[in-house]
Structures are given as C-alpha cells and as structure tokens.
Amino acid sequence: MSKKTVLLIVGSFRKNSFNQTVADYIAEELKKEANVEFLNYRDVPLLEQDTEFPAPQAVKNIRSQAEKADALWVVSPEYNGSYPAILKNVLDWLSRPLVAFDRETPTVIAGKPATVSSIAGSTEGKFVRQNLSTLLAYIRMNPMEGIGTGLVVPAEAWQTGVLTLTDEHKEALKKQVKEFLEFIK
Asked: Of the candidates 94, 108, 90, 13, which has an alpha carbon nearest to the alpha carbon of residue 45?
C-alpha cells in the first residue's frame, strides 16, 4: 500500500512563526509513515466574485496541490478568537467550484480528511480550533472528531520570539499524528 500524502496548511506567514515551528514538528513525525507537503499560498489573491473565474494561476496551483493530497492538516494561530484572514481566504478558494455555477461537481477538498492544531496563549488556541473544525465540516471536508491539539506558548518564547517545543508539546503532537494516520487509512 502506498503512503498517504498529508498537506499542511499553516495560518501564518510570520518569520519565526510559532505555528510554523509546530507544523515543522508535525511534518517530521508524519514523514515516518506518510508523504508530507506544505501548501504555499502566499501569492493567492483575495477571493472576490468579480475575479473568481477564470481562477488565477496561484489558485490553480493550490487547488492542484490540495486535490493530489489524501488529507489536510491546518496549523494556525488564534487571532481575536478565530482564524487569520489569510487562512480563511485560502480555504474559501479551495472550497469554491472549479467551473462557474457548477454546484454538482465536488470541490478539490470535498470529503478530504482533516485535522487542526494550534499553539497560542493560555487558551491553547481553543477558539481557532473550534472555529476551524466547524468551518472544515461546513466546506464539506471530513474533520477528525474533536477540535485537534492545542498548545500553550511558553513564556520564554514570547520574550525571545523563538519557540522550543517542550516534551509535553511533542507528546501531544505525536498522539495527534498517530490518531490522524489511523483516521486517514
């Protein structure tokens, strides 16, 4: 049986992003049993119906990458109790029809297994994880049960701007990786 491909979508472009650090760790753990790719969506324009069709090349690129993946994993910071606009925008593009007014053909992410993780302040990204889990189901993906894994940013990371994952963080993420790999079999 061939390895599954998991596409990681990170909800932050920030240099030294804490959530990118988490996603990098997840990728290393996943690579033991799956193929892993990161979605590069920095050039994706804002979704607006006036320019939706034909889709811009950057959108065609992310759709192709998502279509080829067997599952998606979203790792996101929490912005005001929800997800960042850049992340919502890319999920909006991925959830739209490929052909104008075609509501019958499934989108490139319809039915794909998905999960979420976040590292944030004391909330452990609880609200972004809840909102993402709801959104992923709404856009017809197949989110894993629950709201994913949340981690607290250690105080020293806020001070230095560099995140070093604790053993507790790593164990929680390893557990989620194991559960997700079982989920996507």
From this structure: 90
Residue 75 is inside which H or E element, if any?
strand 71-75
Question: Cβ(80)–Cβ(113) under 8 Å?
Answer: no
**140 touches 97 (CB < 8 A):** no
Determine the Cα–Cα distance for residues 147 and 145; give it in Å rounded to an integer.
Answer: 7
Q: HSE (CB half, 13 Å, CA atoms) of 62? A: 25
**What is the C-alpha separation between 34 and 185, in angstroms, rounded?**
11
3-state secondary structure of 6: strand
| E strand or H helix that includes residue 5 | strand 5-10
Q: List Cβ neighbours of 176 (8 Å cut-off, separation of 6 or more).
A: 26, 115, 117, 148, 149
- 177 pLDDT above the threshold of 90: yes
pLDDT reported for residue 1: 60
Please state, in angstroms and as integers, the Cα–Cα distance from residue 82 to each residue in 11, 56, 70, following that order.
Answer: 11, 27, 26
Exposure string of 22-36, with b = 16+ CB inside 10 Å and e = fewer, is bbebbbebbeeebeb
3-27: per-residue pLDDT in tens? 999 999 999 999 999 999 999 999 9
Check residue 101 and give its pLDDT: 86
